[in-house]
C-alpha cells in the first residue's frame, strides 16, 4: 500500500508559504505509486480523502487510482493563469518509495523548463513556477522527470512525465471583428432587419462564461426611432428598426453597439456604426388650385392647352416628388392627354383628336395626381403603404369649352367599291354618293382625281358617269385591276368645308388583247442545238391569256425547214429541221390564247456560228448594230459619212455574195436556194465577211478547219481575254468590243487569203472577179436618198479611216507583195 504523507519540515515549508494542509492536499493531484509483487493487486487510498470539504471528483479518482507495473502514473497539475502570488511558487512535490534509505535526486525537462518557467528541487522533489502564465498564449505544458540514485548514478525508476494545465480567468474583453461601413436605407423602410451586421470574439477559454458574449445597443443619436440589437448566434448581432424613420427630422444615425462577456469580472467593448436615411415618398402632392377653365375650337388639336401645378414636400427631382397625373372622369373617347413637365413638375393638358361637336359643348374633366414612387405614411409608429389604407389622391376639376365651327360634309361611306367590265360603252352611271352635313344645306361636288379622264361627276348630285371605254390594261389601272377616282364635296360654310371620297372601280377583264412576241428577233447557233425559245406575252389576265398554242403558217417550204417544240405553253420552241446556210430568216407564226384569240407574228431568226463563250458578244453586237448615228469614235459604226437623215441609214442588208472563183451568182435567199451546208465543210468566202467590220457579220464566217491553225489559237485566246475583261469592267464594253473586232477581222482576212491562195495556186497573178453589180440582187425596194451638202467638197477625212482600215490595208498589202500580185 502506498501512502502520501508530509513531513514536519515539508509541512512547515508549505505552511510558511501560507498554505494550509487542506490547500496542500488540493494542490497535490499526483500519487506516487510503489512497485509490488505480481500477486498484489489492491491499492488503497490513505490520504486526500477530502479537499476543502469536497469529495474527489471522478476525474481525480481516476487520476489517483490508476496503477501499472513498475511505472509511475502521473496526473495533470492545474495552474491558474496570471496568479498574483510570490514567485517562485510551489505547484507540487514528487515522492517515490524507492527513495527510502537512499540518496535520490529529482530531475525535470521539457516545455517551460529550458525557458526557466518551471524548476524542481533535486533533493525534495518540489516543483516551482517562477512567473505568471498566460492561458491565451499557452494553455498546457508537458514536463518529463527522472529519479536518480546519487551513489551509483542509476535511475531508480522508469522515465515519467506530468502536464501542467493553465486554468482560465476572465482577463480578456470581447473584440469586434466585423464592423460594417456606413449604410443607406430609404425613409419608408418597414420594421425589418437593417443592413448592419456585426461580429465579435472573446479569446478567453471557449465554452465558458469568460468567452460568452451578449450584445446590446448602448446608445444611438438621435434616439428615435428605436434601433435594437438582435443576437443571431454567440458571435453575431443584427440591428433592427422599431418604428418609422422621418427624413425631415433626422438624415443620419450613429449607433453604439456593446459586446459584453459573462465572466467575473465582466469585460466589454463597443463599436459605432453609421446609418444614412434617404428621403422617400411620405408626402402626397397637393394641387395649387382647385378649379381650372379653358377654351378650344372643335376639329382642332391643341398641344399644351392648359397647365396646372402641385406642391410636394418631398425632396425635389426624386421619384417621391415627381408627379404623375391621371384622368378620374370625363375623357370619353380619349380625346385629351395628360403629360408631366419634367422640369417644373406641372401637369399639361392637350387635345390629341379632332372632334366634331354639333353645338358649343362644355367638357368637364376630373384629374388626380400621385407620385411615381408609392406613398407610405407613418402612423402610431407603424408604416402604412397599402393604397386602401391611405387617403385618396388629391384632385381638381377642369372645364373645357369646345367652340363649334363649320363642319365639312361627310361621305357615308368615305370609300366605295364598284365593279365594271372593261371596254363597256361610255355613259354608264357608276356611283351616287351619300353625303351628310350638319352645318350646311348647299353642297357641290368636284372631280378631284381622274388620271385617265374616263369619268365625269355631276356638280349637284355627285353622280359619277363614265365618259370613255375603260381599259383594264391601262397603266393607270393597278395590278389588281382597280382604277381609282376621287371626288370632293364642298359646302358653303365660312370657311368652306371640304371632304373627299375614293371610289375604287374594279375592272373585270375581257379578251381584248392578242398574244404578242416578247422579242421578234432571235439568234440561233448553227453549231448548237438548232433551237431557240419563243416567249409570248398577253396583256389580258386569266383566262384570256396563256398557256398558248403555237403553229407555223400553212407553207410547205417553211415546214420543211422549221418545226415547233414545244407547241403549247407560256413559251414555244422553234427548231431548225435541216441545216441551213448562215443568214437571216423570217418565220411566220400563229399564236392562240385560251379563248382561241389568234395573232400572226413574224419571228426574225439570225442563223450563225457561235464559238464557245462568244454568244453573249453576238447578242450585244445585235443591239449595237441598230444604231446608225455618226460617231466620232469608230466603235461599232459602219457609216463613213453622216447622211443628215432622221434615224440614220435604212435597216436593209445586202445579200452576201460567194467568193468562189468559178461562179458569180448572188445568194438572195437561203431557203429559195435550198442550200444545205454541213459544219464539217469548208466555208465559202463572201464579200461581206472580208470587208465588213460588223461583229455580227464576222460571226457568220465559216472557218476552214484544215488551214491556218495558228490563227484559230490566236482567236481563242482573244475570246477568253475579252470575256474576262467584260466580267471585270462592264463600263469598258464598247472599247473591248472594238479591240475584239480588230483581232477577229485580222484573223478572218488571214483565213480568206489562205483560201484565195489555195484556189489560185496555178495562177501567177491575182485576177479580180465581179461579185455583184450595182442594183443587182438587192432585196431593198428603194435606195436611200443621200445628201452630202454638209460635207462640201472636202473629203480629206478619207485619208485616215481609223485603226480597222489600217489593219486591213497592212494585211492586204503584205500578202499581195508576198504573192507578187497586182491589184
Characterise this structure:
With 823 residues, the chain is α+β, with helices and mostly antiparallel strands. It has six domains: 8-167, Immunoglobulin-like (Sandwich); 175-278, Immunoglobulin-like; 286-403, Cadherins (Immunoglobulin-like, Sandwich); 410-508, Immunoglobulin-like; 516-608, Cadherins (Immunoglobulin-like), CATH 2.60.40; 625-809, no CATH class. It contains eleven helices and 46 strands. The protein has a five-stranded mixed sheet. It has a four-stranded mixed sheet with strand order 3-9-8-5, with no helix packed on it. Helix 9 (709-728) runs antiparallel to helix 10 (733-759) and helix 10 (733-759) runs parallel beside helix 11 (803-819). The radius of gyration is 63 Å and the shape is elongated.
Please summarize what this structure is.
The protein is α+β, with helices and mostly antiparallel strands and 823 residues long.
Structural class: alpha+beta
pLDDT < 50 stretches:
1-73, 617-637, 642-716, 725-740, 761-766, 778-793
Identify the overall geometry: elongated
Quickly count the domains: 6
Calculate Rg over CA atoms: 63 Å
**What topology, given as strand order, has the largest sheet?**
39-46-45-41-43
The helix tally amounts to: 11
DSSP strand (E) fraction?
25-35%
Distance between the termini: 164 Å
- Main β-sheet description: 5 strands, mixed
- Look at the structure and give the mean pLDDT: 74
How many strands appear in the DSSP assignment? 46
Assembly status:
single chain
Helix content: 10-25%
Amino acid at each position: 500500500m502506498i501512502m502520501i504523507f508530509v513531513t514536519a519540515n515539508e509541512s512547515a515549508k508549505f505552511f510558511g508559504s501560507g498554505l494550509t494542509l487542506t490547500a496542500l492536499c488540493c494542490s497535490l493531484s499526483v500519487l506516487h505509486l510503489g512497485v509490488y509483487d505480481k500477486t498484489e493487486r489492491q491499492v488503497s487510498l490513505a490520504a486526500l480523502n477530502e479537499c476543502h470539504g469536497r469529495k474527489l471528483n471522478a476525474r481525480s479518482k481516476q487520476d489517483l487510482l490508476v496503477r501499472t507495473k513498475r511505472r509511475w502514473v502521473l496526473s495533470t497539475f492545474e495552474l491558474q493563469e496570471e496568479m498574483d502570488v510570490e514567485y517562485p511558487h510551489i505547484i507540487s512535490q514528487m515522492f517515490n518509495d524507492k527513495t527510502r534509505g537512499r540518496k535520490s535526486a529529482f530531475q525535470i525537462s521539457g516545455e517551460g523548463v529550458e525557458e526557466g518557467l518551471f524548476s524542481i528541487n533535486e533533493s525534495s522533489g518540489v516543483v516551482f513556477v517562477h512567473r505568471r502564465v498566460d492561458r491565451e498564449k499557452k494553455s498546457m505544458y508537458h514536463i518529463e522527470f527522472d529519479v536518480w540514485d546519487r551513489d551509483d548514478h542509476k535511475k531508480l525508476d522508469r522515465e515519467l512525465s506530468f502536464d501542467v494545465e493553465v486554468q482560465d480567468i476572465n482577463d480578456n474583453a470581447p473584440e469586434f471583428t466585423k464592423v460594417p461601413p456606413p449604410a443607406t436605407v430609404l425613409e419608408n423602410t418597414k420594421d425589418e432587419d437593417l443592413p448592419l451586421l456585426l461580429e465579435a470574439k472573446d479569446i478567453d477559454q471557449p465554452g465558458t462564461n469568460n468567452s460568452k458574449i451578449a450584445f446590446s445597443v448602448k446608445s444611438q443619436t438621435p434616439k428615435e426611432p428605436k434601433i435594437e440589437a438582435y443576437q443571431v448566434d454567440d458571435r453575431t448581432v443584427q440591428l433592427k428598426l422599431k418604428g418609422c424613420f422621418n427624413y425631415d427630422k433626422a438624415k443620419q444615425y450613429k449607433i453604439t453597439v456593446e459586446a459584453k462577456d459573462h465572466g467575473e469580472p465582466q469585460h466589454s467593448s463597443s463599436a459605432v456604426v453609421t446609418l444614412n436615411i434617404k428621403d422617400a415618398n411620405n408626402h402626397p402632392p397637393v394641387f395649387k388650385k382647385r378649379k381650372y377653365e379653358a377654351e378650344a375650337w372643335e376639329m382642332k388639336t391643341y398641344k399644351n392647352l392648359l397647365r396646372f401645378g402641385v406642391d410636394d414636400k418631398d425632396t425635389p427631382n426624386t421619384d417621391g416628388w415627381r408627379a404623375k397625373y391621371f384622368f378620374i372622369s370625363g375623357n370619353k373617347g380619349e380625346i385629351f392627354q395628360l403629360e408631366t413637365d419634367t422640369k417644373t413638375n406641372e401637369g399639361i393638358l392637350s387635345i390629341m383628336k379632332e372632334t366634331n361637336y354639333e353645338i358649343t359643348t362644355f367638357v368637364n374633366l376630373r384629374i388626380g395626381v400621385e407620385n411615381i414612387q408609392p406613398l407610405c405614411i407613418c402612423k402610431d409608429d407603424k408604416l402604412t403603404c397599402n393604397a386602401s389604407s391611405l387617403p385618396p389622391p388629391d384632385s381638381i376639376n377642369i372645364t373645357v369649352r369646345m367652340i363649334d365651327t363649320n363642319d365639312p360634309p361627310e361621305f357615308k361611306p368615305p370609300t366605295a367599291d364598284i365593279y365594271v367590265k372593261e371596254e363597256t360603252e361610255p355613259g354608264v352611271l357608276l356611283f351616287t354618293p351619300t353625303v351628310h352635313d350638319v352645318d350646311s344645306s348647299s353642297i357641290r361636288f368636284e372631280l378631284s382625281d381622274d388620271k385617265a379622264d374616263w369619268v365625269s361627276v355631276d356638280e349637284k348630285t355627285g353622280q359619277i358617269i363614265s365618259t370613255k371605254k375603260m381599259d383594264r390594261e391601262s397603266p393607270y389601272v393597278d395590278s389588281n385591276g382597280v382604277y381609282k377616282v376621287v371626288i370632293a364635296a364642298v359646302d358653303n360654310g365660312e370657311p368652306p368645308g371640304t371632304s373627299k371620297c375614293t371610289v375604287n372601280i374594279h375592272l373585270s377583264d375581257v379578251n381584248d388583247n392578242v398574244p404578242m412576241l416578247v422579242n421578234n428577233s432571235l439568234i440561233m447557233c448553227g453549231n448548237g442545238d438548232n433551237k431557240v425559245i419563243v416567249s409570248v406575252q398577253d396583256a389580258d389576265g386569266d383566262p384570256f391569256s396563256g398557256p398558248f398554242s403555237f403553229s407555223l403558217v400553212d407553207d410547205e417550204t417553211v415546214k420543211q425547214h422549221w418545226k415547233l417544240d414545244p407547241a403549247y405553253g407560256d413559251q414555244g420552241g422553234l427548231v431548225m429541221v435541216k441545216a441551213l446556210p448562215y443568214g437571216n430568216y423570217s418565220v411566220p407564226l400563229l399564236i392562240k390564247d385560251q379563248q382561241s384569240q389568234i395573232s400572226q407574228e413574224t419571228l426574225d431568226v439570225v442563223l450563225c456560228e457561235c464559238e464557245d463563250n462568244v454568244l453573249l458578244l453576238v447578242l450585244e453586237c445585235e443591239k449595237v448594230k441598230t444604231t446608225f448615228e455618226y460617231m466620232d469614235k469608230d466603235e461599232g459604226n459602219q457609216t463613213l459619212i453622216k447622211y443628215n437623215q432622221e434615224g440614220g441609214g435604212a435597216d436593209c442588208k445586202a445579200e452576201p455574195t460567194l467568193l468562189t472563183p468559178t461562179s458569180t451568182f448572188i445568194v438572195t435567199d437561203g431557203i429559195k436556194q435550198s442550200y444545205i451546208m454541213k459544219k464539217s465543210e469548208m466555208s465559202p468566202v463572201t464579200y461581206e465577211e472580208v470587208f465588213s467590220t460588223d461583229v455580227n457579220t464576222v460571226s457568220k464566217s465559216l472557218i476552214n478547219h484544215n488551214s491556218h491553225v495558228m490563227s484559230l489559237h490566236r482567236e481563242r485566246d482573244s475570246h477568253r481575254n475579252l470575256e474576262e475583261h467584260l466580267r471585270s469592267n462592264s463600263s469598258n464594253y464598247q472599247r473591248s468590243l472594238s479591240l475584239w473586232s480588230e483581232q477577229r477581222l485580222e484573223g478572218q482576212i488571214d483565213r480568206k487569203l489562205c483560201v484565195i491562195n489555195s484556189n489560185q495556186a496555178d495562177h501567177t497573178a491575182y485576177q479580180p472577179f465581179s461579185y455583184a453589180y450595182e442594183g443587182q440582187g438587192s432585196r431593198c425596194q428603194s435606195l436611200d436618198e443621200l445628201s452630202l451638202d454638209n460635207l462640201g467638197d472636202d473629203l480629206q477625212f478619207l485619208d485616215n479611216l481609223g485603226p480597222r482600215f489600217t489593219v486591213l490595208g497592212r494585211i492586204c498589202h503584205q500578202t499581195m507583195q508576198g504573192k507578187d500580185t497586182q491589184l
